[in-house]
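Appendix B, Record 12. Input sequence as logged:
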Amino acid sequence: MTFVTLALSLPVNNIQAGDQQDLEKFQGTWKLVSATRDSKALADDKVKQTTIVFKGDTFRFPELAEYATSKEGTIKLDATKTPKQMDATSTGGEVMLGIYDLEGNRYKVCFAPVGKPRPSEFVSTPGSGYILQFWERPKLP
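Logged structural output:
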């Protein structure tokens, strides 16, 4: 019976490891490259002012956060899903359900408005309320 228990618990450990690996890759500061909501682009001047900092499972926007429900909060990842899932919870308890794709020094994320179902693809169509963002690590001088 011990063998069965170990075999059943093994995937759970792998799931946690995958989530942890992605969480580690998010650590640090990222600059917004572009953002759209309901297929409308965020103004370039606001894009240039927007950064996000991940530390552990927390996030914060040091400056502008045009399309955020909160300037800080926590994230929860599920790297086993396709596409991978991210839940962002504000300090006020509001949860935005999203999907993400992380590759090297770039990632994209698509969030649904609070209370709406998670997006299934990386698009922001008119009337959807979906927020599509592209981020990259700042280049060193």
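The chain has one domain: 2-136.
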